[in-house]
Amino acid sequence: MSHYLELSQLAKVYPTPKGEAVIVKDFDLKIAKGEFVSLIGHSGCGKSTVLSMVAGLNEISGGAVILAGKEITGPGPDRGIVFQSPCLLPWMTAFENVMLGVNQVFYTAARIERREIAEYYLSIVGLAESMHKRPGELSQGMRQRVGIARAFALSPKLLLLDEPFGMLDSLTRFELQQVLIELWRREKITALMVTHDVDEALFLSDRVVMMTNGPAAEVGDILEVKFPRPRERKEVMEHPDYYRLREHLITFLEVHAHKKRKLVDVPPAPSGGSPIQPEAIEPQRFCAA
Amino acid sequence: MNKTKFDSILLPFVGIAACVFIWWCVAGKPVTKQVRDDFGDVVTVTSRVGISADLPGPIETWHKTRDYILKPFEKRGELDQGILAFTWLSLKLVAQGYCIALLVGTPIGFCLGLSKTFSKIFDPIIQILRPVSPLAWLPLGMVLFSSVKISDAAGHVLFGAIDAAALFTIAVCAMWPTVLNTAVGVRAIPQDYLNVAKVLKLSRAKTLCKVLVPATLPYMFTGFRLSLGIAWLVIVAAEMLTGRPGVGGFLWQQYNAQSFAHIILCILTIGVVGFVLDRLMSVVERRFKAV
Ligand SMILES: Nc1ncnc2c1ncn2[C@@H]1O[C@H](COP(=O)(O)OP(=O)(O)O)[C@@H](O)[C@H]1O
Ligand SMILES: [Mg+2]
Asked: Whose CA is closest to atom 20 on ligand 1?
């Protein structure tokens, strides 16, 4: 398998008054071209740190990130980024926000072509009607759509998503997951997404990478998700493997949650399917158990 | 709701009326007496009595200044013009000095906000220069620009050392709020916006005009508004010391002539114009904050 993106021995260390804080250490991950990989782990374990190092926005303390055979040394428009908050410039319309990037990347194209690119992606994410509105006039979900359109409009080599739907209500979240997965299928862009939503990870990804808890977080386990594509949410959830995979992810997260609380008497992850279906990961439940 | 509207119009009038009443109480009133003089003749003597005997009361002030108010643009002489004619002369000077202050202050503010090194080098100097009074800057301006002299064909000086010094004083004094607010605004730009510029690899010029300036505008306009207030404050001092025609120059001349009614007129004019300027600027400022 050829690796398109390779994170090799990636490390992040922050100097603090109390000595060095090792956030991420020996993080190894190889992603093939066109693959959709999710990064899952507890809050604060360093997921965003890894992603922002790949984005080039956070300095790499050790190891390297290699994208399409070249080591990453800084930020650039070859990586489309969608953050939890869409980071639109509030004084520009949705269209102008997208155009800002399009003008940068396709500066050789004619003006009309560049406009068409921006309009095309904004229409695909469902903003044909309101592309000339300012972010202040758009709902949270619409803003995130603009963010997605902006990322795809640059035809990036790599898509980086940091909890892109974390601030949305579940209905909007489902809609936007659909928008994202359709665009991704069309454009065949390699994607790395951070999430803490187990169902989102299973629905969208080819592989789910589980991170151990920090400090010095690393790759704990990798889960292959082989549901056929194109995926329908209902089909995925009714797939016979779905709950086994879900259980696997949740057990991994639970074990690490307990580790942090120094409660080690947790049964190991079951290998087969389990009838128990925890709804969400709630810390209180662990205390009561 | 109706009551608040009523209050917001009526209550200020109550305040103004109270002030005018106190003014009237303090001011001197002319008293006419019939006195028998040394030769035994009866003569009429007018003297002033009151807490501030020489201060004219409200009505007296109106009678003495009505010419200046009712014929606001009349020009009887260089230092004897209608009040709005003087105001216009002062506003022109303020506008020039203010523009210099913004043109110089805004880039300095950006440099301070963007570069830690720049800020470390110049911050102490700024903190020392900022509290210096306009009265102190003006003589320095005179020395600095002593050789400035632009004359027309007939030999009249169009722009001399005095004008340059006045502009210099206004600009130097009015600059600081713009400098400091711009710097604060630049430092307050969310990292998210800067990341957009970084990720898209915008050129420096593009980053400046597409990201940095729009993000800083609300702060800049707060600075601009405060700067305008100071520029207007400084104009009186600058005109007083240089004797230029304008509200401040007129005030000083009338003080020398012991014409207190005219001084009161000048003070009221300066206050009202300053208030109006501040209102106008805050309307503009609010427009930019709304974005
Ligand atoms: N500048 C910094 N200095 C020290 N520690 C930091 C700094 N920035 C982030 N961290 C720490 O790095 C850890 C990982 O953060 P992050 O990557 O945001 O976690 P998450 O997995 O929730 O996205 C957190 O524990 C955070 O406290
Ligand atoms: Mg995070």
From this structure: A44
DSSP string, B16-63: HHHHHHHHHHHB-EEEEEEEE-TTS-EEEEEEEESTBTTS--HHHHHH
CB count in 10 Å sphere of residue B110: 21
The domain in which residue A238 lies consists of: 33-54+73-280
Cis ω before B58 (30° cut-off from 0)? no
Q: DSSP characters for A225-242?
A: ----SS--HHHHHHSTTH
Q: Which helix H or strand E contains B7, and what residues bound it?
A: helix B2-26
3-state secondary structure of B192: helix
Helices B213-242, B247-256: crossing angle, 10 deg rounding: 30
Residues 6+ apart with CB under 8 A from A101: A77, A150, A153, A154, B200
* Ligand 1 pocket residue status of A52, Cβ below 6 Å: no
Please report the ipTM that was assigned to this predicted complex: 0.82
Q: Residue A80: CB within 6 Å of ligand 1? A: no
B92-145: per-residue pLDDT in tens?
Answer: 999 999 999 999 999 999 999 999 999 999 999 999 999 998 888 998 998 999
Distance, CA of A196 to CA of A213 (rounded, Å): 13
The response to whether residue A43 sits with its C-beta less than 6 Å from ligand 1 reads yes
CATH of the domain at A266: 3.40.50.300
- Answer yes or no: is B4 within a domain: no
B213: nearest CA partner in chain A: A91
Read off the pTM: 0.81
Rounded CA separation B169/B161 (Å): 12
B58 in any annotated domain? no
Contact A57, A218 (CB under 8 A): no
B186, B190, B196, B202: CA torsion to nearest 10: 10
Interface test with chain A among B198, B199, B206, by most A beta carbons within 10 Å = B199
Q: Does residue B124 lie within any of the structural domains?
A: yes
| Contacts A55 to B, Cβ<8 Å | 199
Nearest to A98 by CA among A107, A85, A89: A89
Interatomic CA distance for residues B281 and A45, integer angstroms? 49
